[in-house]
């Protein structure tokens, strides 16, 4: 047996009962009786009319106690590895004592500073080499953006 729901009240419409209303945009509405049809045509909000299903659902009326109580889910903590560190490495770091951890941190900072100083010294020596080459007369031609891209060089004018 095919039943339909009332478009306004939400109640069930059995075969042989109710009215069918087709709007100008070809949308079909089914009504159980003239009362719900009339209220729909008056553009009443079914959530504000106390006997409709939407009103009762919104205000949680008629729900049994068992269905109303929601079981809360306990969140389960799970350990997952992060990119670049496996789970056992992470656990090992977590179980480290604070003194050991701070010592390892200081060591890492010291190493990074040394590396930075080395890079700086290499840069300085490279700069000094270039300066020495320039003083001897080996000047390098300064290349502009356009010539680096392969455009034609400007022709120097020899007359004014």
TrEMBL record:
GO molecular function: mRNA binding; structural constituent of ribosome
UniProt keyword annotations, A-Z: Ribonucleoprotein, Ribosomal protein
Pfam family, one: Ribosomal_L24e
SUPFAM superfamilies in the record: Glucocorticoid receptor-like (DNA-binding domain)
Gene3D superfamilies, per the entry: 6.10.250.1270, Ribosomal protein L24e (2.30.170.20)
Domain annotation Large ribosomal subunit protein eL24-related N-terminal: ranges: 1-66
Ranges of biased composition (kind: Polar residues): 148-160
InterPro entries: L24e/L24_sf, Ribosomal_eL24, Ribosomal_eL24-rel_N, Ribosomal_eL24_CS
Signal peptide segment: none
PROSITE patterns: RIBOSOMAL_L24E
Lineage: superkingdom: Eukaryota
BP GO annotations: cytoplasmic translation
UniProt entry tagged with the keyword Nucleus: no
Protein family membership: Belongs to the eukaryotic ribosomal protein eL24 family.
The protein's name: Large ribosomal subunit protein eL24-related N-terminal domain-containing protein
Lineage: Eukaryota, Fungi, Dikarya, Ascomycota, Pezizomycotina
């Amino acid at each position: 047996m095919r039943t339909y729901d009332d478009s306004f009240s939400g109640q069930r419409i059995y075969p042989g009962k109710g009215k069918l209303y087709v709007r100008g945009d070809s949308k079909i509405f089914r009504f159980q009786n003239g009362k719900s049809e009339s209220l729909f045509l008056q553009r009443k909000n079914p959530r504000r009319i106390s006997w409709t299903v939407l009103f009762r659902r919104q205000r949680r009326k008629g729900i049994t106690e068992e269905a109303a109580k929601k079981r809360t889910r306990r969140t389960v903590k799970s350990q997952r590895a992060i990119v670049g560190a496996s789970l056992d490495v992470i656990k090992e770091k977590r179980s480290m004592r604070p003194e050991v951890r701070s010592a390892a941190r200081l060591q890492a900072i010291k190493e990074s500073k040394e590396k930075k100083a080395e890079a700086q010294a290499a840069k300085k020596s490279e700069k000094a080499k270039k300066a020495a080459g320039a003083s001897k007369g080996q000047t390098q031609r300064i290349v502009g953006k356009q010539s680096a891209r392969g455009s034609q060089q400007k022709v120097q004018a020899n007359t004014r």
